[in-house]
Design a protein that fits this description.
Helix content is 43%, strand content 14%. It is α+β, with helices and mostly antiparallel strands and 348 residues long. The structure holds iron/sulfur cluster (SF4).
Length: 348
Amino acid sequence: MDMDSLNLWYQKIARPLPWRENHDPYRIWVSEIMLQQTQVETVISYYLRFLKRFPTLKSLAESDEQEVLTLWSGLGYYRRAKNLRKGAQYLLSLRGEFPRTRDEILRVPGIGPYTAGAILSIAFDLPEALVDGNVQRVFARYFGFQESVQSSKAQKFFWSKAQTWVNTATSPRIHNQALMELGSLICKKGTPLCHQCPIKPSCVAFKKNLQQKLPIPKNRKPSQEVHWLAAVFHKTLRGKDLYWLKQNIGTQWWDGLWEFPRVDKPLKQKWNDSVKFLEKTYGKDFHYIPLNHAQHSVTHHKIRVAPYLIHTSKIPSPIDGKWLTPDQISQLPLSALAKKIFRQLPMC
Ligand code: SF4
């Protein structure tokens, strides 16, 4: 049967990843949250650093949010880190025990249906389904599912199949990991490696040569451009470089992280006119020195920022923030764009 072949295959090829060293639910939870929207190769070093600093649920629950964000800085989707910390606090209030039912574990902040299935099956070997992007792709091809994976019909179909499969697995822990590993290593996006696939005998896409057509993608929102100018205020004090940074509070992106003050640039305005625009905002008393543009994508927004170095000891009001040395800046949770700008500064 295909499912037995899949599970045997996984036991032979499973990658020795750090979160697979034991079945500690806390470690599995941290890894699953980090792995959302992020590649395994990227996550490994973040995971090891995070676990070194916060080896237990208690240590994370009692942590400072800024420190958690600093360790997360660069992984993106910072709400994940904040919810992880909140979730740890919630669990500590339950004596630090992870619930063992889906209904109860879904009450933990930041734990949704996928993470609930991952923790319950991988940590406790319970027959609870999980469906992520990898599983959707495998199922859409294996069952020849011909509708958008986004539709509620598709979601119902995938979850129901995932539950049926895991119910009959000898080890739900092995089975769910096998399914995800198959999506990650073999049934890849683009061209899958069907000749290496343990479930190809019954795969509809393989039999009908539909691998390239399935899954039917989500209807993606068109990407929107956003343009900013960043003011990199700089001064030297007693031989030390200092830069002015501010912390984002309640912002749409990078809430709680630190940035160089920014100004929205109207899209219709040319980049050549940026200095005029800065002069209008901050005045003509400064010399605006252009740095390299930086880019970053968040959800369906493409953000492009033109940073300008400004040597001054007086910050124009009402910009809040504080003067910081490069050493202090490197200890802070920075937004992805602030990191890219920071790396360009001559003394860093
Ligand atoms: S046979 Fe190919 S398309 Fe089908 S599940 Fe395996 S890798 Fe995916």
